[in-house]
């Protein structure tokens, strides 16, 4: 009996030590503002839910309609640059994304898809963990677009 308890304790200790630390961007974020090519723009309410699932990070973008959140886009990525599918709220594939961790609270991404401009950018969590900044560059209608979005924890 004592040997079994020691074996269970050893397994638990190994499992605990191998558990991954939660990424700083995990949580719920609300869009607070955005700029398109340096100009403040109007925006619709947007909630970004980010969850850690083992070695993958799940992103779910939703918009509230009559206090019900409708999923508009989602993806689950590894932070090693592995390609993952980007899907709409109904599960149809919109394109692909690759993401890598660039440092403490920093992430780089590249989005591609048919009939969509290729977009690259970065996500940065503030040092106090209360703000998330998304900065991306792409093209739209043949012109370059630089989009900055500021999110905050509710």
Structure description:
The chain is mainly beta. The chain has a single domain (24-152), classed as Lipocalin (Beta Barrel). It has one helix at residues 2-18; strands at residues 27-36, 39-40, 47-53, 56-65, 68-78, 84-88, 93-103, 106-113, 116-125, 131-140, 143-152. The chain has a 10-stranded antiparallel β-barrel. The longest helix is centred in the first third of the chain and has 17 residues, at 2-18. The radius of gyration is 19 Å and the shape is globular.
What's a quick, concise take on this entry?
The protein is mainly β. The chain is built from 1 helix and 11 strands; from the N terminus they run αβββββββββββ.
Which tags fit this structure?
154 residues, mainly beta, 1 helix, 11 strands, 61% strand, disordered N terminus
How much of the residues is beta strand, in percent? over 45%
Order of helices and strands: HEEEEEEEEEEE
Compute the number of helices: 1
State the shape: globular
| Total number of strands | 11
If classified by CATH, what would the architecture be? Answer: Beta Barrel
Name of the CATH superfamily: Calycin beta-barrel core domain
- Main sheet record: 10 strands, antiparallel, barrel
- Provide the domain count: 1
Distance between the termini: 49 Å
Which helices and strands occur, and which strands form pairs?
Blueprint: H1 2-18, E1 27-36, E2 39-40, E3 47-53, E4 56-65, E5 68-78, E6 84-88, E7 93-103, E8 106-113, E9 116-125, E10 131-140, E11 143-152
Antiparallel strand pairs: 1-2, 1-3, 1-11, 3-4, 4-5, 5-6, 6-7, 7-8, 8-9, 9-10, 10-11
């Amino acid at each position: 009996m004592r040997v079994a308890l020691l074996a269970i304790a050893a397994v638990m200790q190994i499992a605990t030590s191998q558990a991954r630390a939660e990424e700083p961007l995990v949580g719920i974020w609300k869009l607070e503002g955005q700029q398109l090519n340096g100009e403040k723009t109007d925006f619709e309410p947007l909630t970004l839910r980010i969850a850690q699932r083992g070695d993958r990070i799940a992103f779910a973008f939703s918009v509230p309609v009559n206090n019900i959140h409708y999923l508009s886009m989602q993806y689950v990525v590894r932070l090693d640059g592995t390609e993952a599918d980007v899907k709409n709220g109904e599960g149809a594939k919109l394109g692909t994304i690759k993401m890598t961790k660039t440092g403490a609270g920093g992430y780089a991404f590249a989005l591609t898809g048919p009939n969509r401009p290729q977009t690259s950018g970065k996500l940065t969590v503030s040092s106090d963990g209360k703000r998330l900044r998304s900065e991306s560059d792409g093209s739209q209608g043949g012109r370059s677009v630089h989009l900055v979005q500021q999110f905050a924890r509710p």
